[in-house]
């Protein structure tokens, strides 16, 4: 039991062959994988996923990058999932990410930063449902 968060391993980390190492860290940190797949977003789908950042200067680059190759979205479960997962991944900018965090270990840049983590329970639900059907979320 516990509550849930949504994550997505980003194209830089998938392309570098770090998917397995990242999943291992996630499981060792006590998260249970509820749903997972390897898939792709079109530029248009990436634009929808990052709609909240539409007015930001990095929006166009971000959606181009996120649609450039494969991603691995997952729904995860653990007590205090959203907050604990954000601790596990570290700061958005890998230069500011704490030692031992997923971004400190695997991120290339503030944009190609290896992994996403939802920032609230509400967004975890919305983002998980962007990739997974209801039956896949059981
Ligand atoms: P994430 O927090 O998963 O979702 C928003 C993404 O936008 C973030 O990861 C980064 O990949 C990207 N991002 C955030 N801030 C910047 C920035 N200043 N420059 C480029 N990309 C950014």
TrEMBL record:
Supply the enzyme class, top level: transferase
Decide whether keyword Disulfide bond is in the record: no
EC numbers for this chain: 2.7.4.6
Question: A Pfam family this protein belongs to?
Answer: NDK
Active site (catalytic residues): 116 (pros-phosphohistidine intermediate)
| Gene Ontology BP annotations | CTP biosynthetic process; GTP biosynthetic process; UTP biosynthetic process
Q: Which family does it belong to?
A: Belongs to the NDK family.
Q: Could you identify this protein by its name?
A: nucleoside-diphosphate kinase
The record lists the organism as Fulvivirga lutea
